[in-house]
Amino acid sequence: MKQHLFTLSVLAIAVSMVAPTFAQGDQKISKKSKRKAKEYAVENVLVEGKRIGNHENGALGNKAIIDTPFSITLIDAEDMAKRGAKSVRQIFINDPSFYTPASSNTTDWWGMSIRGLPVRNTFADDLPILLYWGGDFPTEVVDSVSALKGATGFMYGFGSPGGAVSYQLKKPQDTAKTNLDLGIRSNSIVSVQLDTNQVMGDDFSYRLNLAQETGTAYNAAEVNRSVASFAAEKAIGEKFEWFGNVIYEDSNLKHEPFQFYLDGYDFVGSGGKLPRVSYDYDDFNVDNSFYATETLISTTGFKYHINENWQAKYQYGYIRKEHDSNKSFADLHNQQGDYSGNIYNFAGILANYFNQLMLTGELSTGAISHEIVAGIGYQKATTQYGPFYYASTADFAGNLYQEQTFLMGDRPDLTLNPVGSEVRQTYGFLSDTIKLTTQWQLILGARHTYYDKEDVDRNPAVNSGYNTKALTPTVALLYKPVADATLYASYVEGLEPGSTVGTRYANAGENLDAQVSTQYELGGKYQAGKLHLEISVFDIQRTETMDLLQNGLLYLTQDGLTTFKGIELSSAYQFTESLRLGMGFVNLDASIDDVSEANKALKGNMPANAAKWQGLVNAEYTVAAIDGLSLHGVIRYYGDTYVTNANQLKVPDYTIANAGFSYEFPLWNRNVTLNGNINNIFNKKYWAGGGYGAGNIGEAINASLGLQASW
């Protein structure tokens, strides 16, 4: 693959130099350019203190974020490059409600959450991609990343109710441009990326991305990643447009630090205190451990511009992510830092097939106008695993403050068994944004999904299949006192698959319906002039399964309930031409409300990994004396969290600070940008709590420097 990337790099550089001579680069406006100008000539939005274009909102269509009845954070590629952000933790550090314990250059393993709720829903151009087994998405191929907060049943169907992270992939643009990026990161990671966009004639454009990253990270992990992508668009006559995109990433992360588990920690003997944090990462890793992933994303489709008001879009996609794990985990025992550890061996392939047809348009019924979005689709997700190895007794033992010398002696078995899980979803959705007046809008929507888990366990004696169906609505009322402000009230639901009740229960064999969580939200958005302000108050009630004892018999029911209530605020203000200040916080009042008799001790407790407070302040300063130079920084507070629902042990709160600069200047008739960043600038030592009782050693001070030349 590396040889292929080198060859492609040489060809791409040649193409980027030669193609402009053929590319109608004399400001001629192509058919596709005119079409896009009409398609996206709508109100801009303000995100993270600057204006950007509209955001594709799935079942709500292409809307300005200010016109949506949800809380959405969107980070574009320019902002990620400026801050040197590679991991989701770094990408969303300016969003107070977003959290993950995973530092950069570690495997993000089941830890992502929004508003205290776990997030398992990730998408790339609407294609579902399963990332919670580990592995960040390659930012090199991303144009923007958005976080939709709260229940996602209407927008995306079945998933976790915490929210969704959606990656918008880089697409061809209307003018030829090439970017060459060179980077270096602590301790010795070097990277190179070529991103070239070319316009060929009047109706065809393409975008090619090639990237390589290799070296040793700040945490002693060895990084080796290769990324390649190719996207193309072609106008076919006046009404049709074809598009396609292929992305490939090969990543191998070696001897990263342990992921610790804290749920068996001696909280009594330790007085509720965790061990002192050490950043001697070599003391708690296994030299021949690794986590390797191979990702393939391919999507294609057509747009049909019926007339000025209506458009149809068909999209087919296939995503395949292969995991090879020889990853190390450890159970932390006491305040002295003793632990016992295991190597986790497995191979797995997670694949998704995606078909969707959408129709969007506008119509009027008298004085009332409607924006219609309708769609039907079919998805199939399969998983295929090999033999799992995780010993019942520890593979090794050690102490946080002593070097770990264990090596995995056996060669991991990374063969694959036949497909072990197959889930099909067939769905349809419809939304109508009803513009009652110039100020009042009503949004009505519904999604119907048939969920079918196939019986593929190859055991004829046991029916492991399961199916259910659900209709999930959304209702929202929006009031726009002025064009740049929106007040809204919304209701939406979250859907999680039910299950077939197991044999230990009196209602064994019963198919439980889809678990429906509810969300009510009131909010306001203002983004004009010097001020950007967003505030929301939310109430999310998550349905849980629970054991119920009736007449001496045990039943599995869906009567459990966990409540997440809170308020979230984000704002930014341009105090002077040079200085912009921002702040944000989320205050969460979460509780476990309805539980089984056996778990009554948990009633009223705070859910695990949900912080009561998170907050931040940030700043950006343009240096007037040096043209093109700006400084930026953020101070981020993470509140303390309980390790488990039993609320016996807390992971302490902590505050970190990041700072950086961006300097734009001309060089040899090229536009050049130099970005430099320091993360955890004061080298704060901390524990970061995660899902399922996990806890990670924090991210030590580290730096990055990137140089981008554009032509």
Automatic annotation (TrEMBL):
Q: Source organism's superkingdom?
A: Bacteria
Q: Name one GO cellular component term.
A: cell outer membrane
Q: Which SUPFAM superfamilies match?
A: Porins (SSF56935)
All copies of the TonB-dependent receptor plug domain together span 66-164
Query: Among the record's GO biological process terms, what is one?
Result: siderophore transport
InterPro entries in alphabetical order: Beta-barrel_TonB, Beta-barrel_TonB_sf, Plug_dom, Plug_dom_sf, TonB-dep_rcpt-like, TonB_sidphr_rcpt
Q: Does the keyword Transport apply?
A: yes
This protein's membrane topology, according to the annotation, is: Multi-pass membrane protein
CDD domains linked? ligand_gated_channel (cd01347)
Q: Which Pfam families match?
A: Plug, TonB_dep_Rec_b-barrel
**Gene3D superfamilies (alphabetical):** TonB-dependent receptor, beta-barrel domain, TonB-dependent receptor, plug domain
- Which PROSITE patterns does the protein's record reference? TONB_DEPENDENT_REC_3
Give its localization.
Answer: Cell outer membrane
Broad class of where this protein is predominantly found: membrane
Which UniProt keyword terms apply here? Cell outer membrane, Membrane, Receptor, Signal, TonB box, Transmembrane, Transmembrane beta strand, Transport
As for family, the record states:
Belongs to the TonB-dependent receptor family.
Per its UniProt record, what NCBIfam families does this chain match? TonB-siderophor
Protein name per Swiss-Prot or TrEMBL:
TonB-dependent siderophore receptor
